[in-house]
Amino acid sequence: MNALIPRLEQELDAHAVWVPTDSSFDPTDFAGLWLVPGSPYANDAAVYAALTAVRENNVPFLGTCGGLQYAVIEYLRNELGTCATHAESDGVDDDNAVVALACSLYGEQRKVTPIAGSRFAGWVERPFVGMHYCSYAPTAQAIRHLKNAGVVVGATTEDGQAEILEFPNHPFYIASLFQPHIGASSGQPIHPLIKSFVAATRR
């Protein structure tokens, strides 16, 4: 991930800094927050607090893989008042909103199809192959709760898995299960999702 920072600065004119989750920082001091993969994080409580802060203060947010999983739980808990836990960090329980996938997606490529009318489809018009390093994902019930609350599924895979979630009442609060930085870190074009996030930080 750190290998992508120079490209963000050179090609998108964005100043990016890596902030460990176990360090003391105020996410509202930044123009945007990208919660990258790496769960369980060094300090889960700090991650959830940062998610609440950027969501309530309209700070642009991009969450990928683990970032999506934690964004789902934070929203269910603090916006919808639902008891929601993560099977990996909280243990397997009946109230898990994020669970282990029946088939791990670690190192797997899957076809991702944008959903017409979503914000994501405005950035990516055609299906593409997304790289995954995830072993956990939101449950179908969690996705139903989110959709009932206005969260938009912006892209899916062939088996119906939600790949992009667009959260409402926020200028840019987007999460993806696939990892858009894969490829860009090794010289391939920067994914439109990342470009859109950087553009949102400028606004």
Q: What's the end-to-end separation, in Å? A: 24 Å
Rg from alpha-carbon coordinates: 16 Å
Largest sheet: 8 strands, mixed
CATH class: Alpha Beta
- In CATH, the topology is named Rossmann fold
The percentage helix is: 25-40%
What sort of overall outline do the alpha carbons produce when their principal axes are compared? globular
CATH architecture: 3-Layer(aba) Sandwich
**What structural category arises from helix and sheet content?**
alpha/beta
Order of helices and strands: HEHEHEHEHEHEEEH
Number of helices: 7
**Strand element count:** 8
Q: CATH superfamily membership, which one?
A: Class I glutamine amidotransferase (GATase) domain
Domain module tally: 1
Q: In what range is the share of β-strand residues?
A: 25-35%
What's the overall average pLDDT, rounded? 93
Unreliable spans: none
Key attributes of the depicted protein:
31% helix; 203 residues; alpha/beta; Rossmann fold; eight-stranded mixed sheet; single chain
Can you describe this structure?
- A hairpin with a 6-residue loop joins strand 7 and strand 8 (173-176).
- The chain has a single domain, classed as Rossmann fold (3-Layer(aba) Sandwich).
- The longest helix is centred in the first third of the chain and has 13 residues, at 44-56.
- Strands 1, 2, 3, 4, 5, 6, 7 and 8 form an 8-stranded mixed sheet that branches.
- The protein is of the alpha/beta class and 203 residues long.
- It has 7 helices and 8 strands; from the N terminus they run H-E-H-E-H-E-H-E-H-E-H-E-E-E-H.
- The two termini are 24 Å apart.
- The radius of gyration is 16 Å and the shape is globular.
